[in-house]
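Q: Trace token order:
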Amino acid sequence: MQLLYPFPLLKATFSHGQDQHPLAEEVASRLAERMADMRRGFGTVLDLGSGTASMAASLAQAGVTPDTLIHADLVSGNLHHPLSVALNAEHPLPFANGTFDAVISNLMLHWINDVPQTLMHIGRALKPDGLFLASTFGNDSFIELKTAFAESGSRHAHTIPFTDVQSAGAALQKVGYAMPVVDRDVITVTYKDFAALYTDMRLAGSRNLHPARSRGLMTPRQLRRMEDAYRTNFARPDGTLPVTLEILYLHGWRPHTSQQKPLKPGSATVSLDEVLKTLPPRSQKD
């Protein structure tokens, strides 16, 4: 099978060993707040795709204090914590089934070739009633860049494929997670010029690895057409350039008998008609 993202290419892309990008830190903070909202303890937690471990600081700030937090990343050079392991999330995870109370993953899933398979590996590593919580980019991310390239006449892919709320929820449900939920944020980042935008994207590891990307260098004329289209359609009155980032947050649980389940159709003991009869009549307006 030809991989969309060959593992050596992913390793080379993320073997920078530098601190997390501010965007990753911001999303980590929002992800940690969602975990804190669960209002329950998580004894053993796996941070999958941890990078340089900004997730740990975000969890602590949100008041989430697991007894054990294990950091895991594809690139061993990014791992500086004693409880760390280098692994490929697309392979069976090197932990016994039912090891973790929670698996959390920040902005990793969009780099996965086979997401359902990875979700199954994660599900096996969770204890019954264990939580999977993740963030990933959604389809509306980099919409300005995609639109500008399209209007400039480019026929190549200029971002990697992302997903949408419905597809993400369906993936969780398909592999058997209980009570799956997907919600979204939209974050807009602005830059003073294209040089600042390109520099920040490189620092964030936003490299286009799509197989349908152009394999040649973009000519100055092509780049100028794209930038002109970007300015015309999206530049703010002060000349700054916005970049839209849609962040999807996924969560689901390994099934357990204690979890709430929807009633079977026809199992209700009181009819809707009987309930409606008990309601006071609606007031009539003159």
Remarks:
- The radius of gyration is 22 Å.
- The first helix runs from residue 7 to 14.
- The domain at 7-149+161-187+243-255 is CATH 3.40.50.150 (Rossmann fold).
